[in-house]
Amino acid sequence: MNRIDGRANDQLREVSFQLDIAPLAHGSVLVSFGETQVICSAMLERGVPRWMMHQNVAGGWLTAEYSMLPYSTLQRKPRDISRGKLDGRSSEIQRLIGRSLRAVVDLKKLGQRTLWVDCDVLRADGGTRTASITGACIAVEMAFQRFVAVNKLDASPMDRLAAAVSAGIWEGESRLDLNYHEDKDASVDFNYAMTSDFELIEMQGSGEEATFTEEQMLEMLRYSKQGIATIVEKQNEALGLFDPTANVDLLTRLE
Predict the structure, then answer these.
(1) Every domain of the chain and the residues it spans
(2) Which long-range contacts (CB under 8 A, 24 or more apart) does 224-228 make?
(3) Contact at 8 Å (CB) between 120 and 67?
(4) Sheet hosting strand 162-170, strand order edge to edge
(5) Which residues pair with residue 45 across a beta bridge?
(6) Separation of alpha carbons 106 and 198, rounded Å
(7) Contact 164/129 with Cβ under 8 angstroms?
């Protein structure tokens, strides 16, 4: 069965990265998975959470925040602050982003610093959490490279990249990187976060009032590993074009 955008079942949407989209952030990128667009930024600040000091935990911390801008969907999405609390979906996604990045960052090498990662969805067409993880990884590495460039870090604390992609079953067929049209009607929905050497960080998946077989699960995993391989290649290409010394004004403000 043909997909609405003409892709093969195991084919990603077009993935792209626009670096330094937020020039005051220590690292930032606009990541696009097809029509889905997310602005990801990373900023390092001195100090760590109080619980780390109380428990004498060495090193630094990494935490993430995720939000969908009001105009990111067809119907305006009210800001969380207007309701007085973070909605459950946003809370779950930002925890996933944080866990995924902490899996590939040596927090002890941060020193007494907290790395803040912000992911703001500019346009939502399915896969915003996976795009957020993928883009945030680049933003974080950009920040690290800048701190290395001014001798604030000895080396990047990121030992490998992290990336993520969705897969699911739509009309009985396994499909990679679901857009909104597929995601809203999928009978099975999975999200995979992996390292650049294909170790699993996290799998989230369930049937939507449906079941799936072991064979289908393995096929979705196979598609996802193919997708991650392509995404990591694009991440490396983007980082290869990054010059951490280019923004002189920003470098003078790093602590």
Answers:
(1) 15-244
(2) 224/165, 224/167, 224/176, 224/190, 224/192, 224/194, 225/194, 225/198, 226/10, 226/176, 227/10, 227/12, 227/165, 227/167, 227/176, 227/177, 228/163, 228/164, 228/165, 228/192, 228/194, 228/196, 228/198
(3) yes
(4) 173-176, 162-170, 188-195, 200-207
(5) 114
(6) 18
(7) yes
As a whole number of Å, the CA-based R_g of the chain is 18
Place of tokens 């957020």: 132
**CA separation, residue 210 to residues 10, 117, 174 (Å):** 22, 35, 14
Neighbour count for residue 165 (Cβ, 10 Å):
29
Tens-level pLDDT at each residue, the chain (255 residues)? 678 889 999 999 999 999 999 999 999 999 999 999 999 999 999 999 899 888 988 899 999 999 999 899 888 988 877 776 777 888 999 999 999 999 999 999 999 999 999 999 999 999 999 999 999 999 999 999 999 999 999 999 999 999 999 999 998 999 999 999 999 999 999 999 999 999 999 999 999 889 999 999 999 999 999 999 999 999 999 999 999 999 988 999 888
Check residue 172 and give left, alpha or beta (phi > 0: left; psi -120 to 50: alpha). Answer: left
Name which CATH class applies to 15-244.
alpha beta
Q: How many C-beta atoms surround the C-beta of residue 229 within 10 A?
A: 13
Residue 38, CA distances (Å) to 13, 74, 187, 207 in order: 15, 16, 26, 27
Phi, psi of 48 (to 5 degrees): -130, 165
